[in-house]
Design goal:
With 335 residues, the chain is an alpha/beta fold. Helices cover 28% and strands 20% of the residues. The chain folds into two domains: 146 residues, Rossmann fold; 163 residues, LD-carboxypeptidase A C-terminal domain-like (Glucose Oxidase, domain 1, 3-Layer(bba) Sandwich). Helix 10 packs parallel to helix 11.
């Protein structure tokens, strides 16, 4: 399938917000307003999805309502970018009902992370459109500076395009896994000096595929999961896990033959990780499972549930240099 590119993000464009899982815009109204004002203040228009401020319990609406909200934004000719309000656990419910033909007819930028992995990868699988593992509205832009500003800069760096390949992605000087700052909670975000980890050195170049590992297990092996091909660079991130869940997930990938195909592995920082007294970090658990394979592995990459967050093009070509701890985009991801 030929890769599709959406038009790059430009000042004044309209960003449509959908709620594929949790009713985040209803749960945290103050942070939602902060995030909306953040993007408006930087020159973008916001198109609120039909479920904005609605929902109860674990979801923003029925499966039908959530799919209808997303499809309305897909079909809206004034919407240039579709961004998730937040994550959750049930975005995979939408996959059979997305209007993939409309996506193919008029490609847009699709952005989100965590549970939104299901929507991003399904669109890539069914249409070939490059999607973007990047900000959710509230989790990313409902923060206080500097985290929101830095994530926004990385977001624009990729979605505005205009660069010449290879385009090396930055490495933040510091990071945090705290959810919000003192203006809302009364405590300071605790910053840490940044350090990537070369689990296994080497270089590889290929198509980037992946996202949130736990979410991928909810539709892996279905027509909505892109086939992992020879030489792909696999990107995986997660949160709130422990070694046994990491072992289970990576063992599934091994049993599915994934590690026999990929050319490299990038592991994101793992927020709220609990080692259960083992002393094992996620990449150490993974290494026990993938030890027989010689591809390069870079861990603690800044894309996922920690802040600031880089934006990655799913389906785009990347170059991984695990020895030098660098990731570069090798082809255009927008037009």
């Amino acid at each position: 399938m030929t890769a599709l590119l959406a038009p790059r993000l430009r000042p004044g464009d309209t960003i449509g917000i959908f709620s594929p899982s949790t009713p985040a815009t209803a749960w945290v109204a103050r942070r939602t307003t902060l995030a909306e004002d953040f993007l408006i203040g930087r020159g973008f228009r916001i198109r609120r999805g039909a479920l904005w401020g609605r929902g109860a319990g674990y979801r923003s609406g029925s499966i039908h309502d959530r799919a209808a909200e997303l499809n309305a934004l897909i079909r809206d000719p004034d919407v240039n970018c579709v961004m998730a309000a937040g994550g959750g656990l049930v975005s995979n419910s939408l996959l059979p009902y997305i209007d993939y033909e409309a996506v193919s007819r008029c490609p847009k930028l699709f952005v989100g992370f965590s549970d939104v992995t299901a929507v991003l990868l399904a669109i890539l699988a069914r249409t070939g459109l490059i999607t973007f593992y990047g900000p959710n509205l509230i989790a990313t832009f409902g923060e206080i500076p500097p985290w929101s500003n830095e994530s926004f800069a990385y977001f624009l760096d990729v979605l505005q395009g205009g660069w010449t390949a290879p385009h090396e992605l930055g490495v933040p000087k510091r990071w945090t896994e705290d959810s919000v700052g003192r203006e809302e909670t009364g405590f300071e975000c605790e910053p840490h000096g940044n350090r990537l980890v070369t689990v296994r050195g080497g270089r590889a170049e290929g198509r980037l595929i992946g996202g949130n590992l736990d979410t991928m297990l909810g539709f892996f092996g279905t027509p909505y999961m892109p086939e992992i091909c020879e030489g792909d660079i696999l990107f995986l991130e997660d949160c709130k896990d422990d070694p046994e869940r990491v072992e289970r997930a990576f063992s599934l990938l091994k049993c599915a033959g994934v590690f026999e195909k990929i050319g490299g592995l990038i592991m994101g920082k793992h927020a709220d990780y609990r080692d259960r007294g083992t002393g094992l970090r996620p990449w150490e658990v993974a290494l026990e499972i993938i030890g027989a394979y010689g591809f390069p592995v870079l861990a603690e990459f800044d894309c996922g549930h920690t802040k600031p967050m880089l934006t990655l093009p799913l389906g785009g070509a990347v170059h991984l240099d695990a020895s030098a701890q660098r990731v570069a985009l090798m082809s255009a991801v927008t037009i």
